[in-house]
Amino acid sequence: MQSGFSMPLRGLAAAGLLFFAAVPGHATSIGLTPVYPDLTTSGATLSYSYTAVCQNSSGSSIGSCGSGGRNTARWDLTYGVLTLTKDGSQTLNVDGTGVLPVSNSAGTNYNLKVVIGFNAGGTSISGILANNPGTTTHTSALSATGLTSDPNFQSGTIVSGTPTSAVPYGYSAPFGYSGTGVSGVFEFVFNNVGGDMDPYAGADWGGIIINTYNLTGVTGGWDAAGVNFWKTSHSGTANLDTFVPVPGAAWLFGSALACLGWIRQRAAHMVA
Amino acid sequence: MISSLRNMTVAVSCLLASTVALAGNGVLLGVQVAYPRVNFTEGLASQGAVYNGSVLTITSTPVFLTFSEGGTEEFILGGSLTLSANIDGGGALSGGTFSISGNVTDTATSAVYSGVLLSGTVADYGIIDVGIPGGTDLADFSMNATSGSMLATAGGSGAAVNALVALEGSSFSGSFAASWSADRAKGDIGPAPSVPQLPPHTIGFWKNHPEVWPVTTMVICGNSLNQDELVSVLGSSPRGDVTIIMARQLIASRLNVASGNSCPLTVDAEAWLCSHGGIGASRKKWDGGEELKNALDQFNNGGACSL
Fold it and tell me: Is A97 within 8 Å of B218 when comparing Cβ atoms?
């Protein structure tokens, strides 16, 4: 679907993206919509922990914030790690005709780790980073294992991949988060799709939607810039969807169609 | 000139269509789900949520039933779930029903439940538009059980039952003035937990009443602390160490926040603590943190959370 836009639509989609970019980018949903095959993981353990470091006025890391003087309050969040794990059952919906139970005899059935990096000023999220804050590399991992009765899902690994800071076509950001109080939604994309979902992955993109209703530690709220939200450590339980491929952004496609219709109507009117 | 204005109007409309929908709105009830808990997901592509202007109908497939916390997730065979809520264009609820059916066995007791597992009425609902069109929105429901083969297990007739529903692929835009739908509805249904909401309490209260803590673990400065460790901090003698003094106030404040109270200053308190070496860093000077500590102390004693 990502490659399904005609050229005029691509232009309109790009225009829509400019409109969208005027809004603080990462503090909202990016509008991922799940497709099939879709792995549902309920009751996963969610944990987000951040690491604060001291920096000097140029943004370089220093060993200690000291007490008083110029270093006061020169601490800053550098990166945080979001992990979701589930030891237990999951379900797989291959094509929308029914649900298959996914089981695994031992070990972690689902494991997701995403490292989120921040700009030196701590005022905006720069992307999904990994062990090298300040760059756009990533080493995060996703894996889900188990066996089902579907003949195409028997290898023992349902899906694996790498959460990425790359932005799928038509989307505004590599990830989204939005919520209120203790409830909210996280969205991530991943590539390097492996496991039994690989043949279904199309252009090698997958999506992850996480919803939670019981986060503790969100004392700073779901602020638009993400400073308060990502500056506190969170924990709770969550339900997840992991699916491939990532469809084209529905809202963008709809807006583009509406605007294209208007342009065509107007062009016809002018000719007449 | 008129044509130009019209063009501009349409262009602005396109802009607004791409931006206005980003704003979140609405409220959730904030309810939680206890056990036995039914987890549901979409089984058929035709399932999801539809609001037709007067009734919100949610259909999904119950897949797992967990009878107790940490217990086995029992697979539900042939399950179906329907939740209908009568909601007018202004968002007012005027009743509704829910029904969960299927066949499931509690492998711990060999008890078998079949047919309508649980049904009842809808008492209240909440919904928030957190996703842009096509994204995921969240809803929750407060309901009462009336019948079903699991009625006794769920607390008997009239027992409070809650539902948490993620609406994926949703076109809900914060209003019931127009019809909307969602591709998939996934979530959990189960009895309401019997956790009371508490007013703010002091360090001493929380130290002596761990049985009423709303949470039993906390992550402070990247370190996860269990309840025993947290109680130990609350009961420790600071001996002049301002990081321990701050940590005790912070832990009590977080427990008060988790009990339903609000105090955004806990963010600043943790930031101060982390930037001064964490809990037990043997610092003697407040270095600008004393006012923050006093504010948390005020909050923990029933006062305002303000500097």
Answer: no
Q: Which residue of B has its CA nearest to A77?
A: B271
Report chain B's C-alpha Rg in angstroms: 24
What 3-state class would DSSP assign to A263?
Answer: helix
Q: Is the dihedral of CA B265, B271, B275, B280 positive or negative?
A: positive
Q: Position of tokens 């809004």?
A: A23
CB B192 within 8 A of CB B172: no
Determine the pLDDT at residue A15: 29
A59-80: pLDDT as tens digits: 566 665 554 444 444 444 456 7
* Window 110-129 of A, Cβ < 8 Å to B: none
**A151-A156-A158 Cα angle (round to 5):** 80
Q: What is the pLDDT of residues B202-259, one digit of tens each?
A: 999 999 988 788 777 777 887 778 888 899 999 999 999 999 999 999 999 988 887 7
- Provide the shortest C-alpha distance from residue A29 to chain B (in Å): 5
Distance between CA A168 and CA A2 in Å, rounded? 8
Please answer whether residues A208 and A175 qualify as being in contact, where contact means their C-beta atoms are separated by less than 8 angstroms: no
pLDDT of the residue at A19: 25
**A67 burial level (CB within 10 Å; 0-12, 13-18, 19+):** middle
d(CA B228, CA B96): 44
The ipTM (two decimal places) reads: 0.73
- Residue B197: CA count within 13 A, CB half-sphere: 7
Name residues whose C-beta falls within 8 Å of residue A235's C-beta, 6 or more positions apart in sequence. A45, A46, A47, A48, A215, A216, A217, B217, B219, B224
Contact status of B128 with chain A (Cβ, < 8 Å): yes
Shortest Cα distance from A8 to chain B (angstroms)?
Answer: 16
Q: Residue B275 corresponds to which tokens in the numbers above? A: 């930037």
Chain B contacts of A95, Cβ < 8 Å?
45
Instruction: Give dist(CA B32, CA B256) in Å, integer.
Output: 18
